[in-house]
Amino acid sequence: MKLMLNGMEYDIPEPLSRALVAQFAAMLLAHYEKLDSKMQLLFMPVTRGILYKMERAATTEEAKKAIRPPKGGDPTLHLAELFLQTIQEGMKHAIASIDTEEDSASVTALNLALASEGPGGGQVVAYGSQWFREDDGSQDARRAIGTALSDGAPLHLGFEA
Fold first, then answer.
1. Is-contact 150 142, C-beta < 8 A?
2. Residue 77 lies in a domain
3. Domain residue limits at 80
4. What would the pLDDT profile of 77-95 be if each residue is shown by its tens digit?
5. pTM for this structure?
6. Which of 41, 49, 109, 128 has a Cα-to-Cα distance from 9 of 20 to 30 A?
7. Residues 89, 109: Cα–Cα separation, whole Å
């Protein structure tokens, strides 16, 4: 991940970005555990449906197996783990830009974008699911999920950074 602070670019090492995702995972888990068990139970059919659609869209058996929640496991936590793995993979290509106004000690601009790595890359629009590029087929959500899952360093909710 890169951080642009008032036009100066800084590289954030992967261990620090993993620690950031770990903190986010810990916050999610803490909030989820505070929910009433009946509420958690209500989430399960919804997350099972989402995971089922993701599994049907997966093109390889490895990806389908990774998307399937473990037997007896909470599908909501499994979906959150997949989400966090995707965020971790995306952070390798992210640029966070922050502009400040020194006189008032305030932030004037905050932006999170994906680094453009050739004709297939582009910036994500903050207000929708539009892309500043033509879809050349080089990036596919199913491939991105498969890549994030086969990273070799899986994230688990509640893990320590």
1. no
2. yes
3. 11-96+130-161
4. 999 999 999 888 888 888 9
5. 0.63
6. 128
7. 25
Pairing of the two strands 2-5 and 106-114: unpaired
Does residue 115 lie within any of the structural domains?
no
Q: Could you give the number of structural domains in the chain? A: 1
- SS3 of the chain: helix, strand, coil, percent, to 5: 45, 15, 35
Spatial separation of the C-alpha atoms in residues 51 and 130, rounded to whole Å: 24
C-alpha span between 26 and 53 (Å, rounded)? 27
Is the model's pLDDT at 144 over the cut of 80?
A: no
Cα distances from 97 to residues 1, 3, 45, 106, 144, in angstroms, run: 11, 6, 38, 14, 24
Q: Quick one: average pLDDT of 94-115? A: 87
Look at residue 6 and tell me if it is in a domain. Answer: no
> How confident is the model at residue 126, as a pLDDT?
45
Q: Is 113 left (phi over 0), alpha (psi -120 to 50) or beta?
A: beta
What value does the mean pLDDT take over residues 110-123? 66
